[in-house]
Amino acid sequence: MKPTLPQGTRDFSPEIVRKRSFIFKTIQTQFELYGFEPLETPAFENIDTLMGKYGEEGDKLIFKILNNGLDRPEKHVQAQEDFNRVLTGKNVKGITERALKYDLTIPFARYVAMNKGQINFPFKRYQIQPVWRADRPQRGRYREFTQCDADVVGSKSLINEIELIQLYKEVFEKLNIPVAICVNNRKILAALAELAGGASRLTDITIAIDKLDKTSLDKVMEELSAKNLDEQALDTVKRYLSLKTDETNNKEIIQKLEAMIGMIDIGKEGIQEIKFITNHFADIKLDVTLARGLNYYTGTILEVKPLGIQMGSIGGGGRYDDLTGLFGVPDVPGVGISFGVDRIYDVMDELKLFPDEIQQSVEVMLVNFGEMFQQRNFDILHFLRKNQISAELYPDVIKFDKQLKYAHKKKVSFIIIIGEDELKEGTISIKNFTTGVQEKCQLNDLLQCIK
C-alpha cells in the first residue's frame, strides 16, 4: 500500500521544524516578557464542553471522536450497535462523547471554571498547542494546526487590550512581517443588530459580515435576506458596511458611528472603548466589517493581516466577558489573542524572512578515520558539548570527501580532523567551512578558534 497523509495534515522536515521553532521561541519569549504563564490542556474534550460555543458554522467543523467502548467493557457492544446505526443513517445519540479541541479558548475557559478557587486573578496564561478543525483544506487553512494564545482573565480593564495589541506589534516586528492590525467592537455590532431588527439578529449579522473578506457585499446581503431580514434592516446593514473605505480615517469612522448608533447605550459603550484603544495606537485600523463570527466575543475584537501578500488573517482575538458562564461560573471577564503559526510560517517562507543561521543543527563535525582515533575524537566531542557547542562525530569510516559532503549538506561551520600527525603531536586540525581556512591548535585553544 502506498503511504499517504490524511487530508489537511502535514509532515514537518527538520528544516521546517527549525523554522517553526524560531517562530514559537519568538512568540514565547514575548509572552513571558509580558508576564504570561504557560498552560496546557488535553488534545480532546468532552463534546458538551465544545458544542454550542462556536456558533452553528463552528460546530460543523468540530472533529468528533467515535466511542470505542473499550474504556468500559460493558460499553463495547453498545458502541458497535451505535456504529451500525451511523452506517444505516438511524439515530446516532450516544455514539460520541468526546471531540478534538477546536481552539484553545474554550478549553481554557473550562480550566478556569474548574480551578477558579486556586487561580490568582487576574490570571495571565499563554498556550502553544495543536487544534483540529474539519475544514476544507486550502492554502493557509489546515485540519490540524498550532495555535499560540495569550489571555488575561479576571480583569475588565482596557489596559489588557492595549498590552495585547502591543504584544502583537512587537512579535511581528521581531519576525519582520509587516502587518495591519484591525480592531472593532462587538457592542457596536450589537447596536447595529438593534437597528436592524433586534438583538436576536446579532448572530446572523456577524456570521454574514465575517465572510465579507471572502465574498462580495451582494452575497452577504443575499445571506441576510435568506435569514428573513426585511428591506429596511438590509439597508441599515449596507449603510453600516459603507463606512469602510480605504480613505476614511479612524476619527471620521467614529464620528459616523456616533451619528448612526450613538443613541443606543451598548453602541455608545463600544464607541468609547474603540476611542480608548485607537487613541493609544496611531497605526491601528478601525474596521467596521470585522465581526469574528464566534459567539463568545462581547467587546473588543482584533484581527492581524500581513501586508504585501495574499493570505488570510495571521492573528485574531478579542474580549469575552462571560465565557466561563458557559460552565456555570459567571462574572469572570477575559480578553485574549491568538497567533496563527501555520499561516505565519507560510508568509515568512514566501517572503524569505527566516534567518539563515536557524538552519544549522550542528556547528562542528569530527571526521572519522577509524578506531585508532576514536578516543581522541570522543574527548574532543565531550569538551565541545560541555562548552555548549553542538558537535557530532561521523559514525562510519567512509571516504573523506563523502564525510565532507555530509557536513556541507548539514551546513556545518567547522570540521575537525584527527589523523596520525594530529594524534602524534597532540594537536587538532580545524577547518572553517565558510572561509576555507584550516589551522592547527591545542584543545585549550579550540574554543577561541571556533569563535
Describe the structure.
The chain is built from 17 helices and 16 strands. The chain has about 450 residues and is of the alpha+beta class. It folds into 2 domains: about 15-40 and about 100-350, BirA Bifunctional Protein, domain 2 (2-Layer Sandwich), CATH 3.30.930.10; about 360-450, Anticodon-binding domain (Rossmann fold, 3-Layer(aba) Sandwich), CATH 3.40.50. Strands 1-5-6-11-10-9-7-8 form an 8-stranded mixed beta sheet. A 5-stranded mixed beta sheet has the order 13-12-14-15-16. A 3-stranded antiparallel beta sheet has the order 2-4-3. Strand 9 (about 300-305) and strand 10 (about 315-320) form a beta hairpin. Helix 1 (about 15-35) packs antiparallel against helix 6, helix 8 (about 200-210) runs antiparallel to helix 9 and helix 11 packs antiparallel against helix 12 (about 265-280). The longest helix has 20 residues, at about 15-35. The two termini are about 50 Å apart. The mean pLDDT is about 90.
Q: Which structural category do the helix and sheet elements fall into?
A: alpha+beta
Return the average pLDDT rounded to an integer. Answer: 89
Gyration radius (Cα, Å) is: 28 Å
Sheet with the most strands, sense and barrel status? 8 strands, mixed
Count of distinct strands? 16
Total domains? 2
The CATH topology assignment of the largest domain is: BirA Bifunctional Protein, domain 2
Through-space gap between termini: 50 Å
- Which CATH-level-2 architecture of the largest domain? 2-Layer Sandwich
Envelope shape:
elongated
Count of separate DSSP helical elements: 17
CATH class of the largest domain: Alpha Beta
Q: Strand portion, in percent?
A: 15-25%
What is the helical fraction, as a range of percent? 25-40%
What is the CATH superfamily classification of the largest domain? Bira Bifunctional Protein, Domain 2
Residue stretches low in confidence (pLDDT < 50, at least 5 long) are none
Which strands sit side by side, in order, in the main sheet? 1-5-6-11-10-9-7-8
